[in-house]
Amino acid sequence: MSDPILAPNQEAFLAHIRARLANSRQSPHPGRFPARAQAAGDVPRAGAARRALIDRFVAELTAVGGHAERIGQPGDLAVYLRRLAESADRKLAVREDDPRWREPQGAPWLAALAGSGLEVVTASAARATLAAADIGITWADWGIAETGTLVQLTGPGRARTVSLLPPVHVALLPAERILAQRSELMRILRESGPSGLLPSQVVLITGPSRTGDIENDLTIGVHGPGEVHVLIIESEADTAETATGPCGDGEAAPW
Amino acid sequence: MSTSHTASGQRAGSSGHGRAGTTIYQRAAAAVRNTRLGEAVRRTTDRFRFARRRAVAALDDFEALREHARRIRAHTIDHLDYYLAQLAQRVQAAGGHVFFARTAEDAVNYVLEVARRHQVRTVIKSKSMISEEIELNHHLEANGIRAVETDLGEYIVQLGREKPSHLIAPALHKSRDEIAQLFSSVAGRPLSTDTPTLNAFARAQLRHEFLQADMGITGCNFAVAETGAICLVTNEGNGRMVTSLPRVQVTLMGMERIVPTMDDLDVMLELLPRSATGQKLSVYTTIITGPRRPGETDGPEELHLVIVDNGRSNMLGTEFQEALHCIRCSACQNVCPVYRHIGGHAYGWVYGGPIGAVITPLLKDLRDWGELANASSLCGACTEVCPVKIPLHDLLIGLRKETNAHRPAPWGERVLFRLWAAVASGPGRWQAALRLARLVQRPFLQDGRWRWAPPPLSHWLTDRELPAVARQSFREWWQARSDRPTSGHGVPTPSSHGAGAVPRQAGGAKR
Ligand code: SF4
Question: Which of B70, B80, B300, B499 would disulfide-bridge B389, Cβ 3.0–4.6 Å?
Answer without folding.
Answer: B70
